[in-house]
Amino acid sequence: MTTLAIDNTFDDPARRAPLVLNHTDFGSVTNDICAVNEAPKAPRAWYIAFAISVMFLGILGGLILYLFATGIGVWGNQNPVMWGFPIVNFVFWVGIGHAGTLISAILHLFRQKWRTGINRFAEAMTIFAVICAGMFPGIHIGRVWVFYWMFPMPNQMEMWPQFRSPLLWDVFAVGTYFTVSLLFWYMGMIPDLATLRDRARTRVRAIAYGIFALGWRSSMRHWHRYERAYLLLAALATPLVLSVHSVVSFDFAVSQIPGWHTTIFPPYFVAGAIFSGFAMVMTLAVPARQLWGLKDFITLRHLENMNKIILVTGSMVGYAYIMEFFIAWYSGSLYESFAFINRATGQYAWAYWIMVSCNVIVPQIFWFRKARQSIAIMFVASLLVNVGMWFERFVIIVTSLAQDFLPSSWGYFKPTWVDLLMLAGSFGLFMTLFLLFCRFLPIIAIAEVKHTMPEADPHSHGGTDEHHREARA
Amino acid sequence: MSPLDHNRPRGKAYWRSLDDLADTPEFREFVFREFPAGATEMLDSGERRQFLKIMGASLALAGFGLAGCRRWPKEQIAPFANRPEGRVPGAPEYYATSMELGGVADGLLVTSFDGRPVKIEGNPEHPVSRGGSGVEAQASVLELYDPDRSRYPMLRETDSRHQSSWHAFETWATKHFDSLGNAKGGGLAVLSEATESPSVGDMRARVMKRFPRAAWYEYEPINTDHEMAGSNAAFGATYRPQYSFNRAKVVVSLDSDFLLASRAMVRNTRDFAQGRKRLLDGTSTRLYVFESAFSLTGANADNRFAVRSRDVSAIAALLAARLVPDAAASASAREQSDRATPEVLGLDAAVLDQVVSDLKQSRGDSIVLAGPRQPAEVHVLAALINEHLGSVGRTVRYTPLPDATQSVPSITSLTKDLDSGRIHTLVILGGNPAYDAPADLDFAGKLSSQRLKSVHLSIYDNETSRLCTWHLPRAHYLESWADGRAWDGTWSIAQPLIEPLFGGRSPLELLAVMEGGDVRAGYDIVRRTMSESAKRTDFEQAWRRTLHDGFLAGSAATLMRPDVRRPACIAAVESIWQQWAPAPAGEMELVFVPDTKVYDGRFANNGWLQELPDPMTKLTWDNAVLAGVEAAGRLGVTTGDRVRVTHGDRQVEAAVCVMPGQCSNSVTLSLGYGRPHGGTIAEGAGFDFYALRTADAMGFTTGAVEKISGHYPLAQTQDHHAIDSTAGKGTQARLPSLFREATLQQFKDNPRFANDHHHTGAHAVHRLSLWNETNLEGAVYAWAMSIDLNACTGCSACVVACQAENNIPIVGKDQVLRGREMHWLRIDRYFQGHDPETPRSVGMQPIPCMMCENAPCEQVCPVAATTHDKDGLNVMVYNRCVGTRYCSNNCPYKVRRFNYFDYWKRGPEREMGLLHVKPDYYTKPQTDMHPLRRMQMNPEVTVRSRGVMEKCTYCIQRISVAKIEAKNAWVKMTPEQKQRQPRATVPDGSLTTACAQACPAQAIIFGDMNDPTSRVSDAFKGARSYQMLEEINTKPRTRYLAKLRDPAPVGAQEAGSAGHEEPNHG
Can you tell me the ipTM of this complex? Predict the structure, then answer.
């Protein structure tokens, strides 16, 4: 396979930009993508990354055991900051989990064909991020052995959960989101799993992929059902993208702590979630396309489009930051104004300014085309946005709690080594799952990406696309 | 099964001899002696073996038929075959007793469950305590069950120390004292704690009769030597002043912390709070305080002036000169007195004029009192001023103290006698002189002399015990018969509620051994003393009455009005001006104060007291060098930095704690910490400033403080934010709304100031709810609490009372540093004003659960673990709680406490490891609660496990008992009565919470809001009643009564208050 440096980032509305480069037939697309899974050995970098990830996963597992055995005092949580790192991490990971479903569902409904290059692993990222997210509320409660009391199920105590609590809504919102995202991801993967099954050289692979391919035979009827179901799920998933983080934001907005009690939270959280999700997709896509030679499918145009979304959502988040200050002033409430002045100038000002610089200032670089198209800049920027978005949750949760109404109760939250290692461990869990996914599942939607090729269009024969003509010649 | 079950005294399956079966003391001693000497000492951590021994002792007691006095928690329920008459298992019983501390007995009422004393209150009948109590009394029940208590007599031989037995001691003592008796007691000395106990006095006389040449000494590190010396000088006899703060219109405290560091603290606080009520009628009531350390009394002052302790005598002399013509300085002294200008003293020029004019205006209704630190001359002048102003007989009276001994001269002469070798046998009754005697006496060195035979009776095997030939375990006051004199002289009885847990004996019983008479039991001694003294025909009846009441009615000392001897006063003034000189610049004064928690160090192993935040510094688990804001700046230190305090050639390295309002040329050093052998709780706590305290300067002295490298974490439960920081400004901005107070003038202008939103800066309230609020209509009871900030002094007795009542664990310094203290009730302390050096005022605000009718915590709990009950209480269902902690986040008052670990099952830890977490703290196996600690638990209250949120319940266990009683009473009523009273009601005042019960100021009122005649309803109707954070519509059931102050328009203190920055300087 030769990779020609072809620029598909032009902005000429008269020309349709190619979304797959250097491929003129479906067979080579299949071959190139399946090669990632079919190669007898993964690249050396994969093994190194996997070893590190598994190590952190092991640390996480050990720490969870330690936590269960001793009590949640191993964290830095205290009075008044009863929620510390676990909930910061929870909101952070839920936010990351937004890009996948947004890309697959909303962009699908809007017929944004460029999504096909990135949707599969963005969705995978969503699933894994939500797993990381879901873990934290589960283990952060004081008596983990009765965590199921938070679910509405019949029991001998004849007790229902308390339906007014946003935490319960969280259980529903995250649970639904995870279920739908998982279904959506898995269903979209069925034709590709069948492809892998058909190309399997060993019996084990054939059986394993065969089971998950659910007997897909690529018949017209299958495709018809598949397309319908996919559309329906996309329609189902779309409101969820908006709802899940809105509900997560209710954990804060419904309470009455200054700095939490604000109506801007639902849209602000959703924007922030998309923002962080795209940043994470970027963080993963840049090395992945390098590692497995997928630059033809995840092209610079894809990356540039994502950068534009990062710029937009980053600015929305910045707007929300400013609006919070305005409302704090406008409310005339002593406590509300203090909460925000204190964020910017008080004991946690360092966290606030990390957040603002990473989330508001850094994305502004994407106003420049050069920056949008520079792999190095976008990778660094995406990392910074990830950092900034983690700090956003830290700022919201910790600074609001640390200094609320009565000055006598004010405290200063400091994480413990367990907090820090668990955060690292959650990345270990995430990366382990993601690396396994890259190794064993099609990381690009083979079937879907073919739709975006001129060859998929029945009218494209001898097509008008100059590039394709050139390529053919 | 609990470990107790394995060890239950149920007889032994095998025995080695018949004696073993009987388990006689002789046999046990033989078993002990089988091991090499000292080996038994190594059993400190061997809980099982220690416990076996306790159980062995209990088996022995069972043999004497005394098992009924002690109940070990058991899993099985074994009902009595024949229930003792009048005994209801599980029903609490109450006994009146008393606790002697520093020579003064406090009348107490102890609650006992099945033979276990679990809770201590002030005795409501007692003329001094009248139901109030201080922190020491509240916490003393924990001492009874302290696993670190000494369990066996210890014998020190030439090079080793080993466990012995009472039998061995008695054998030795009989022989030894017999031989001493032959020598008429030559070479024998007794060193006692200060005591006014008539029985000890009687026993002392008997011992002295046998040993006429013996000597008796008394030592108390926190003593009233200066007061006694002053009294002797002024009156020619020792008197104790009795102040009536409730009647005083002007009180001038010369370095006296009479609201906390006084053995009359309970009475003073109650009287003071009563006196402050006069402000409500618009009458001026003013407290002036001149002091160096910021004491609790200073915090309650209307005008407080931070001056050096050494300058207080000059102030006293200046005041006396202005008030009493006789006390004017002689010509020779005038030169010196002229140098005591206001600038030199650090006072505003008008201050003394104001104080003098106030005192003159309220002739006869004023009190001038001097603190125990101040030299005798200041006490003389205080007595003189009081007499001259006609206060004696009105606000100041005196009771005689004929037998009182001054501590420092006493121990000094004892040390001399030890030195000269005149004494070869020393019996120490209690106390810990090796630790707390004046440093220059080197008492510990003298005590460890090989020639000296010494006996130390003590609850703990402490610093002194280790140096003595014999250490004997002392019975706790809850285990022994004793008596004492209350502050007013009332003869108060201490009766045991439980057999001595470790076979300890009381000082009376030890004295009986020395006397060698037939009467050996504490009971007989106390009874004999009283019968000999009373000499009444109906003695038996009077004795029973005394036991029931806890004191002998009418035994208070006669109130007297001795005359001040004028020559003594003139001599005092001369002496003051001879000694006083303006302090050289840069000189640092060291002021020694008793600790507000561990007193003189004797309570250092009491976890409740260690974890109790100091009322002013909010410091737990340590003491520190308290330095003023300016002084800290000068030294270049902040809270937690290490400093070296030097006095002569003695020095102590300690940590500094910056304290607003502390005099800038003076540091405060609280005593009682840094104990080398204090026990597991006291280990490593704080710094020992006794090392700087010499016999000639027990109150204050001069020294130097310098910064050294290093940092020492200090666990404060409330941070003090720098005044110019965002947090500091934010705090000051919201204080007028949270802690509402006004000056007398503002109150007169606007009696409704507390609810005047313009005044307080609080928002107007819109009663609008987004959801259906809890429906409380038709509720039978509506429990509510009113806290009078005008009465509360901040003494913290309520905090310990709550801890004792509700089985609240201590968490340890490490966890307090993490903000995880568990106190259900806390006292918020706010410094108000914009000058950190001289805070305008101090706010003390007890915060229990607000019991919001619209409780924010309830809305957010996903499992409905916190809900409203029918009485409108916000209750916490521990069983249902999964520990999401959302309720605490949403609580605007932050009153909820989370049990991060099983705090009951872990010892409190001080040390911090990697990243402030000590791993083995968390990895340590969670053993079950110590069996002894379990005995202290209030059986009416759940012991919460880890991972569960807890909070103040308004003592719901007491509410339940009261409701059941009311219902039972109602059911038994006749139909006519029922018609008049259609439902069961709890009479107002018959039910109260632990905090309200303990409060010596009676600042907390608890009752039924539904009853329009209840005291709490009355309080709520008052103009001063306000709800904290009412603008967020939580509808709290705990409300506050705003504070009033009556500051004189002088001094550095701004007179404005409550949000008004009115420059009102005179």
Answer: 0.90
